[in-house]
Amino acid sequence: MALVLTEEQTMLRDSARGLIGDKAPIAHLRKLRDERDATGFSRELWKSFTEMGFAGLLVPEEFGGSGLGCVEAGVVMEEIGRNLTPSPFLSTAVLAASALARGGSDAQKKAYLPKIADGSLIAALAVDEGAKHRPTKIALQATRAGNGFKLKGAKALVVDGHVADLLIVAARSAGNPGDVDGLTLFLVDPKAKGVSIERTVMVDAHNAARISLDNVEVDTDHVLGEVDRGGALLEGVLNVGRAAVAAEMLGVADEAFGRTVAYLKERKQFGKLIGEFQALQHRAAHLYTEIEIVRAAVLKALQAIDTDPENAGFAVSVAKAKAGTVATLAVQEGVQMHGGMGMTDQFDVGLFMKRARVLQELFGDANYHAEALAAWKKY
Amino acid sequence: MPDAQNLDQFRRDTRAWLEANCPAEMRTPMQGDEDNFWGGRNAKFASDAQKVWFERMRDKGWTVPDWPTQYGGGGLDPAQAKVLREEMAAIGARSPLSSFGIWMLGPALLKYGNEQQKAEHLPKIARGEIRWCQGYSEPNAGSDLASLQTRAVPDGDDFIINGSKIWTSYANYADWIFCLVRTDASAKKHDGISFILFDMASPGVTTKPILLISGKSPFCETFFDNVRVPQSHVVGTVNRGWDVAKYLLQHERAMISGMGGRDGGRPLGQVAADSLGTDDQGRLDDPMLRGQIAAFDVDEAALACAAERAVDLAKAGQLHPAFSSAMKYYGTELNKRRHEILMSAGGIDALEWESERSHDGARARAWLRTKANSIEGGTSEVMLGIVAKRILDLPGA
Ligand SMILES: Cc1cc2nc3c(=O)[nH]c(=O)nc-3n(C[C@H](O)[C@H](O)[C@H](O)COP(=O)(O)OP(=O)(O)OC[C@H]3O[C@@H](n4cnc5c(N)ncnc54)[C@H](O)[C@@H]3O)c2cc1C
């Protein structure tokens, strides 16, 4: 498969760019932030996303979606990254849709996928517990009880957790934290007894929640996939999420960079455009090169998930690690080259810096994925 | 889709052919420059396997798989050429022929040469019969290449060439040179340059090797003293040689950017584990170095994606002509980092300079040689300048 977007994918990008740029530019995020909006995203915007078919991108056609692939999801994520748009696209259209499509029973698919596609259901994936992303260390306990399980424990950084109609919770049903095996995924109703949800207001003004489960009862038909063997399903879904987040970071990096280059061409000091200074030119050129390399690595990862999901982990780790490092560099250089203006809230470049920091942590930072690569290569 | 099917069939055939025809010895990493086969009038093979491998590939046109068959190429389309590269990489097959003719001159001749020049030179390049060298740099024209002073003055149907070049790689082994000369001294500096080809055996051409810090001297100073060259040997238009020169540089840069990958080197993690050992969990027994290698592996794998994408973009007509500068910059800086890590992993053992055990200091010499990667073919600073001005459109100083 060629590492360039097809004509259809380019059209999708253009329509995403049009819609998001139009209805949800950065001012949209600012408004939600400044009004301390309780939902943290616009239902109206989500309706437009749904009408464009974005919500059901990864939902198979038989369940009302368009059955497209990760490359298409990545294309939309990149535009979201460019505009720092808050929306349930990642939590619901990417993570929940692929979890259900990959691991769901027929009944589960029928119950949830059409609602994801028509925009009426928002879902959130609850994985991490500690300060860093370590899926094997999941400790949230699932103990067998009656005709099902009782869940006890807590989750952090659950994207869209506070607005979700459905939680997908990764729990330990066997073994000990640190074991690769022994995980099970559960579909949990956020209104169930024992669930408490606290919205965490984060540095980037996007949506996330801390969730704690106090002996929450779930019955067996709410198990997603197989009991004790959820690790592989989870890893597969996480890989989709990682590649998607990498695509968002690409958007963040590329947009922050584009704005920086534009600034170099307009700001004057010492009687010159600052873009004439070679010290800045070289840093800009370096950044350009890094971003183009990320673009290729992200596309490679998205394609790998679509064509060879079993072996996509390597490409995904490369993309997430590289995108994390480069997005970090792009936003830091962005602030620096904007000088004092870069430090003001009024200028957007700082918002990119905040978002990049969050995306870097989400589903494994650059170190996590470099480590994964080392393990993969056995050294 | 019939196309995909054909490509699958091509892949199967190629795999089978390589399996049957690539000698086992030619599937091991090269140890040093001696393992390259450079062709030319005085070509010598390092082994029978090298000879067999070269001849079989040559006969299929696969020294230059994507050149037209009429010029000795394999006539493969870009997708097939990619398959061949992938299948060769899969078995670790060495390149059968190393050649500035293939990497640099060939593409320039295909674009700018006239029919006679193509028919004359391309098949000889493809068959490894003529070894070429590059006469670009001069003592006072390095990064500022267009300030070159070597003069070519018309005399009847010929030019008389006087001047000198420096850093001419392998000039002392080369049969022919592609050379930049000044044909109009009064024009603006880019407008008076011509791109010309001539035989290194012509009267008046002499070379003098330059010893490098790696202890090797594949580089020369090259002197031209009233060298007579037919005017018909100019490629493209007289005084418009800068266009040809730049086009050739794009190919040179793309070639140099991929050089780290082409040595078929073993994965860094394995090399380091062999020399430093592993802990009880199988992890390299030097956590900081392990982290450096992992970070390197991320960058290298990502760069490989970008190189692959560049080929696909070119095919789709979407590649920026200056993109090779970005890749050259990144690839060479990365290759230097790779060799720093190799030295670090080798520790004291990697410091040996003269011994059989160390293949005559192969690792240390290779490390030193890589320092030129970010100088030859245009320095990293110059590459960044090109990206800044031509791609990012930043104001020129
Ligand atoms: C191993 C090796 C093989 C080579 N092979 C060949 C060959 O086969 N044929 C051939 O013709 N040439 C060859 N070269 C020459 C090579 O192309 C030149 O060395 C190169 O272009 C740099 O020129 P220079 O050495 O004169 O350095 P200089 O141009 O003197 O540069 C010195 C330093 O100044 C910096 N600098 C210069 N200009 C600028 C600028 N505008 N902005 C910022 N920094 C700048 C450079 O980046 C460098 O760091 C080879 C060189 C080497 C080392």
UniProtKB/TrEMBL annotation, chain A:
Its cofactor is FAD. Residues 140-216 form the Acyl-CoA oxidase/dehydrogenase middle domain. It holds the Pfam family Acyl-CoA_dh_M. Keywords: FAD, Flavoprotein, Oxidoreductase. Residues 6-119 form the Acyl-CoA dehydrogenase/oxidase N-terminal domain. InterPro entries: Acyl-CoA_Oxase/DH_mid-dom (IPR006091), Acyl-CoA_Oxase/DH_mid-dom_sf (IPR046373), AcylCo_DH-like_C (IPR036250), AcylCo_DH/oxidase_C (IPR009075), AcylCoA_DH/ox_N (IPR013786), AcylCoA_DH/ox_N_sf (IPR037069), AcylCoA_DH/oxidase_NM_dom_sf (IPR009100). The keyword Flavoprotein applies. It comes from the Bacteria. Transmembrane segments: none annotated. Residues 229-375 form the Acyl-CoA dehydrogenase/oxidase C-terminal domain. Belongs to the acyl-CoA dehydrogenase family. This is Acyl-CoA dehydrogenase-like. It comes from Rhodopseudomonas palustris (strain HaA2).
TrEMBL record, chain B:
It holds the Pfam family Acyl-CoA_dh_N. Residues 239-392 form the Acyl-CoA dehydrogenase/oxidase C-terminal domain. It comes from the Bacteria. One of its GO terms (cellular component) is plasma membrane. Residues 51-129 form the Acyl-CoA dehydrogenase/oxidase N-terminal domain. Coiled coil: none annotated. Residues 133-227 form the Acyl-CoA oxidase/dehydrogenase middle domain. One of its GO terms (molecular function) is flavin adenine dinucleotide binding. The keyword Flavoprotein applies. Its cofactor is FAD. Keywords: FAD, Flavoprotein, Oxidoreductase. Belongs to the acyl-CoA dehydrogenase family. This is Acyl-CoA dehydrogenase-like. It comes from Rhodopseudomonas palustris (strain HaA2).
